[in-house]
């Protein structure tokens, strides 16, 4: 992974390159960013640049022995740690290393949901267990095989429970020429004892223009479709990839039918729609549909606020919110978005989809048809 292969984030790239040139590499760094920002890819590219045998001005060469091994994630001095779904107490990251290499090389912007899909997760919770902590200590106690540095990249240290305290000593006083690169999304969920021992590198969400250009160059999407997807993904490249894989207007048709059925208040329409059509979409498509609905409500709020110039939607979707906004106001749109967020939260936790979508449908009827707004609760995701 080279810096030139990563979408956007030029300021972060320049900062990392400068750090190496000035020989001011902190031994423990925390790459903190929203999902889909490319932080994991940046950590791998940074590690490759540090170990490159023939560094270019602003990137690794991509051709030396070290770079070739990094590009396949098989360099003996590069180690990974990540959440996994242990079947046995002795399982650690190496148990799933082949799946990890394949998944990352296929999509360096992956999220935990995609990682889960590539493993036999069943209903297990992802975590980084004590066996993995002991494995890390053992691996990093060895001398480097080929490079000047040994580098551990830990993805999502939020999934380190109290077992992570076993790593405190080696993070604070690592062996000579040993680097820790932690890649996280939520600073508040990281153990304070680990957080205090790292230097934070903040990585912003992707710019819409960078995502748009990536979709045009790499996926050969039309400029109009790439622009709409970039806007709806709100700086999350992983979401942009998900949206680009869907048939055009697929989510729009499902969401429009659901909202119309709720407004009609006909149980013979919205009950089969919720229990059959939506409940059978599959977990990831259900989450994507709800993400789409949240974005659509955001556009409705902009439209209702008297700022239609800020609404960036395809003609068909723009026509829908123009018409549907006649039965909405800003409070209703916010309430609907909140119900979608709560539904997304519950789907992630394996709620029964038939019960969930029927429940949401009944709440939509109350909001849209009967002007009954629920008490606003905590929002569970940010899109």
Q: Can you give keywords for this protein?
A:
5 strands; 7% strand; elongated; 383 residues; alpha/beta; single chain; disordered C terminus; 5-stranded parallel beta sheet; 17 helices
SSE string: HEHHEHHHEHEHEHHHHHHHHH
Instruction: Round the mean pLDDT to the nearest integer and report it.
Output: 86
Query: Looking at the structure, what is the overall shape?
Result: elongated
The number of distinct helices, counting runs of at least 4 residues, comes to 17
Estimated structural class: alpha/beta
Q: Which parts are unreliable, with pLDDT below 50 for 5 consecutive residues or more?
A: 377-383
- Cα-atom radius of gyration: 23 Å
Q: Percentage of helical residues?
A: 40-55%
* Amino-to-carboxy terminus distance: 27 Å
Number of strands: 5
Report strand %.
5-15%
Q: What composes the largest sheet?
A: 5 strands, parallel
Strand order of the largest sheet: 2-3-4-1-5
Give me the secondary-structure topology.
Elements: H1 10-21, E1 28-32, H2 39-51, H3 65-71, E2 78-81, H4 97-106, H5 112-117, H6 130-140, E3 150-155, H7 168-172, E4 178-184, H8 192-195, E5 199-202, H9 208-219, H10 223-233, H11 237-245, H12 250-264, H13 267-278, H14 283-304, H15 315-324, H16 330-348, H17 353-368
Parallel strand pairs: 1-4, 1-5, 2-3, 3-4
Helix pairs in contact: 1-2, 2-3, 9-10, 10-11, 12-13, 12-14, 12-17, 13-17, 14-16, 16-17
Written account of the structure:
- It is elongated and about 70 Å long.
- Strand 3, helix 7 and strand 4 form a beta-alpha-beta unit.
- Helix 16 (330-348) packs antiparallel against helix 17.
- With 383 residues, it is an alpha/beta fold.
- The chain has helices at residues 10-21, 39-51, 65-71, 97-106, 112-117, 130-140, 168-172, 192-195, 208-219, 223-233, 237-245, 250-264, 267-278, 283-304, 315-324, 330-348, 353-368, and strands at 28-32, 78-81, 150-155, 178-184, 199-202.
- The chain contains 17 helices and five strands.
């Amino acid at each position: 992974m080279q810096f030139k292969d990563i979408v956007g984030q030029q300021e972060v790239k320049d900062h990392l390159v400068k750090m190496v040139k000035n020989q001011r590499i902190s031994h423990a760094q925390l790459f903190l960013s929203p999902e889909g920002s490319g932080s994991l890819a940046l950590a791998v590219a940074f590690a490759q640049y540090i170990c490159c045998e023939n560094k270019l001005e602003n990137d690794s060469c991509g051709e030396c022995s070290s770079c070739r091994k990094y590009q396949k994630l098989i360099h003996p001095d590069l180690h990974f740690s990540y959440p996994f779904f242990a079947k046995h107490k002795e399982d650690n990251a190496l148990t799933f290393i082949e799946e990890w290499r394949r998944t990352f090389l296929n999509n360096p912007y992956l999220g935990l949901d995609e990682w889960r899909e590539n493993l036999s997760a069943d209903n297990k919770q992802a975590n980084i267990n004590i066996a993995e902590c002991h494995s890390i200590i053992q691996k990093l106690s060895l001398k480097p095989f080929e490079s000047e540095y040994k580098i551990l990249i830990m993805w999502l240290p939020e999934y380190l429970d109290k077992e992570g305290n076993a790593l405190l000593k080696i993070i604070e006083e690592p062996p000579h020429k040993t680097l820790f690169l932690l890649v996280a999304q939520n600073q508040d969920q990281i153990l304070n004892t680990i957080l205090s021992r790292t230097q934070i590198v903040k990585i912003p969400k992707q710019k819409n223009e960078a995502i748009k250009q990536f979709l045009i160059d790499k996926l050969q999407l039309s400029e109009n479709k790439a622009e709409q997807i970039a806007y709806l993904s709100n700086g999350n490249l992983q979401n942009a990839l998900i949206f680009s894989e869907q048939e055009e207007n697929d989510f729009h048709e499902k969401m429009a039918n659901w909202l119309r059925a709720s407004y009609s208040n006909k149980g013979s329409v919205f009950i089969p729609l919720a229990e059959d059509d939506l409940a059978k979409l599959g977990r990831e498509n259900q989450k994507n549909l709800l993400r789409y609905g949240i974005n659509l409500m955001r556009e409705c709020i902009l439209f209702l606020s008297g700022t239609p110039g800020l609404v960036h939607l395809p003609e068909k979707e723009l026509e829908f919110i123009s018409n549907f906004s006649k039965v909405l106001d800003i409070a209703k749109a916010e309430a609907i978005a909140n119900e979608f967020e709560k539904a997304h939260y519950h789907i992630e936790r394996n709620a029964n989809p038939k019960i969930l979508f029927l429940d949401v449908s009944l709440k939509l009827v109350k909001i849209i048809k009967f002007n009954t707004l629920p008490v606003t609760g905590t929002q569970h995701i940010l899109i």
